[in-house]
Amino acid sequence: MHILKLCVGVDTLEELADWQAGRLKQMKGVPKRLSHVTRMTPKRRDEILDGGSLYWVIKGQIAARQPIVDLKPAVKNGQPHCAIVYEPVLIPVARRLHRPFQGWRYLKPEDAPADLPRGASGELSAELAKLGLL
Questions:
Q1: What is the pTM of this model?
Q2: How many CB atoms lie within 10 A of CB 53?
């Protein structure tokens, strides 16, 4: 099972990669892992931790994924939250349109877009998706 999340404030996959690289430079210690803190804790923890990824929706398109390594309790503004901990590697996927939503959503493995070949940026599939051809 995967998690689908909107990437707010980012227009391109390159912007997300740059932002995450900056966060990683600020970190001290090993292993360097990123996390996204969210209000709701996924109930399907075991399924997610069994090979699940965090899929990012950028500008209305599912654009990339990052393998999830843990779901940890967190506190934000005195309220219980969940930290979705994921690997720092961004894996571009075949772009697919997705409408906006709040929070996060489950994404079934059979509905997840395929990874792009290594070195592919996905720009062509992004343009085709914008045109409604994918």
A1: 0.85
A2: 23
